[in-house]
Design brief:
4-stranded mixed β-sheet; two-stranded antiparallel sheet
Amino acid sequence: MDPMLATGGSAIMALKELTARGLAVDQIIAVFLVGCPEGVANLQREFPDLKIVLAELDSHLNEKSYICPGLGDFGDRVLHRLSGPANILPCNVMIVPLLANESLS
């Protein structure tokens, strides 16, 4: 579980570590709250058989590689380093399979 799938770099590093330790890709389900097509494409290029689940697919990455529209800085929000209403995260999301070629059951 990773809150955001932007470029996919962190997820790819984690998945490489897991597979190097013997875990098969078909035993892994990568779960993200929000992502973008670029991150999904990078994960699929590195791990074509990986099951990917997103709560929300946003439109793109901006020039700073931030998900747009995104959630802002998720880490700051979770750790309450932002003030005001930005600390409130949406709770009305449902996890659904995205771009999976097979059932997640």
